[in-house]
Specification:
4 domains, alpha+beta, about 500 residues, five-stranded mixed beta sheet, elongated, 14 helices, 12 strands, Beta-Lactamase, about 60% helix, five-stranded antiparallel beta sheet
């Protein structure tokens, strides 16, 4: 027994977990306590459990240490990312913000917002500050968009008027979070006033570029009526000289007749019986002969018939010139910053006049206008889109009819569909190849030969109709038969 106890004791002293168990037993039962040999298996199992626990504890501590390090590192990275985002945002013209609509204040506003507005940061954060900084009466559009925001991303452009009375155009973009009665908007506001101004100048430049490309055709369109007006005026001018000779001859005849009548009166009165009546009659006959010769020489009947026609033709030609000039003026007229209600039918008529020289040699125009109400739009931009589509259609038809005496058909229609209007422009051209249809609205993509197309026309058209007006632009095409482009615009605000 003692030998077994000594052996076990020796074994116990070799295992740290068993030594710990022995100390606990001695503490409980006294230093003289001797552990029975039959407990050895039990003690060994408990020692193994202690060892497993020790290993698990070390693993847990190591894991916690690693987790703490990872957490600290992740937190540090997050702080760095937030600081980097703040620096990036505040180094641009974009102003980061967090708006708490429930409290009516900005819980965060970028430094640019404070400096640009002159309003202290603390005032932005005061409850109810929204009604002070952006009151509804001076910023109805902004507040209406704030109220309409729902969970998810948002983006809109509005006019903005701060307390310093400075009016700007601002693009708001970010995300909205709605939790119960709480509504938080986080995002960026960017002053795009200068960008919009440059955009308007670019649009005007593109419009003038289009006018420049069409200048030769427009000059030809004006030259034709000018030429026949000039010919008619020359004809009338020459005719007036001839008619003047006839009128002069008839005036002489009138004078001769009047003189003969006077002498007859004198003779009848017996005041001058010696007057030679025969001489007076001869003068009248001679004057009548001269008048007749003058009338035949000038072909007076022809002049009287043709002169009114020439004048009518001149009036028509001057009317055509006035129409072309008016159409050019309407087409090139700069847009206002805000949309305005406009007559789309009249706008398309003007654009057809401007583009006439592009299509008149290759196609007959079939124009079908429905009665349309005034449409809220940027009319100059819509004119540019219609012109681009007309020119593209003309080029497509030209590819089909070149080398022949045939003419294609260019069909322009408008019609009212509920609260939208639709403009369709169809051609009998080659159609759009299948491989190009998915890229037709991409910037710089063109199916025309090098030097003939820039690839900007349809990209600009899509941007104007879809992004600027909230409408749609689509097409239907069939190779060998032609294409039709459909523009749909809301009558009022989208």
């Amino acid at each position: 027994m003692k030998i077994e106890q000594r052996a076990w004791t020796k074994t116990l002293t070799m295992v740290p977990s068993q030594r710990l168990l022995k100390r606990q037993l001695n503490r409980c039962f006294g230093k003289d306590f001797r552990i029975p040999a039959e407990w050895s298996d039990f003690i060994a199992a408990v020692g193994g459990a202690y060892a497993d626990f020790e290993n698990d504890r070390e693993m847990v501590e190591r894991s916690m240490e690693l987790s703490s390090q990872d957490l600290l590192e992740a937190n540090s990275n997050l702080l760095q990312s937030r600081e980097m985002f703040r620096l990036m945002a505040e180094s641009t013209r974009a102003i980061p913000f967090t708006l708490d609509l429930a409290r009516g204040c900005f819980s965060y506003i970028g430094a640019q917002g404070v400096s640009d507005s002159g309003i202290p940061e603390a005032q932005w954060k005061e409850p109810g500050a929204l009604d002070v900084i952006l009151p509804r009466d001076s910023n109805p559009s902004v507040r209406r968009h704030f109220d309409a925001c729902q969970n998810g991303p948002f983006e809109f452009v509005t006019a903005l008027c701060l307390r310093n009375d400075r009016r700007t155009e601002v693009r708001w973009t970010g995300t909205c979070e709605v939790l119960g009665d709480t509504k938080i908007l986080r995002g960026l506001m960017l002053d795009i006033t200068e960008l919009r101004r440059l955009g308007r100048e670019l649009t005007a430049a593109q419009k003038l570029e289009s006018v420049g490309r069409l200048a030769a055709g427009v000059a030809h369109e004006i030259n034709t009526p000018v030429q026949f007006v000039s010919d008619n005026v020359q004809f009338v001018s020459k005719s007036m000289a001839d008619i003047s000779g006839v009128i002069h001859a008839y005036r002489l005849l009138q004078q001769a007749v009047q003189s003969m009548g006077a002498m007859q009166l004198v003779r009848d009165a017996g005041d001058d019986p010696s007057m030679d009546t025969a001489q007076s009659i001869a003068a009248v006959v001679a004057a009548a002969r001269v008048a007749g010769d003058a009338e035949r020489a000038t072909d007076l009947d022809y002049l009287l018939q043709q002169a009114p026609l020439a004048l009518d033709s001149s009036i028509e030609g001057l009317g055509r010139i006035a129409t072309i000039v008016r159409s050019m003026k309407e087409f090139a007229h700069p847009d206002n910053a805000q949309k305005a209600f406009a007559d789309l039918n009249q706008a398309i008529r003007s654009t057809l006049v401007v583009a006439r020289n592009e299509y008149k040699y290759v196609a007959d125009a079939d124009v079908q206008f429905a009665d349309l109400p005034p449409v809220l739009c940027h009319l100059g931009e819509v004119n540019q889109v219609v012109l681009n589509l007309l020119v593209n259609a003309s080029h497509a038809i030209a590819d089909v009819v070149k080398g022949t005496n045939n003419l294609g058909t260019l069909t322009v229609r408008t019609h009212l569909d509920g609260d939208e209007v639709e403009i369709s422009i169809a051609d009998t051209g080659t159609g759009i190849p299948k491989e190009a249809r998915d890229r037709i609205f991409d910037p710089f993509f063109t199916t025309k030969e090098v030097g003939k197309g820039t690839g900007q026309g349809l990209a600009l058209a899509h941007s104007v109709i879809v992004k600027r007006h909230g409408g749609t632009l689509r097409f239907e095409t069939e190779c060998g038969k032609g294409s039709t482009f459909f523009i749909r615009l809301p009558i009022g605000a989208p």
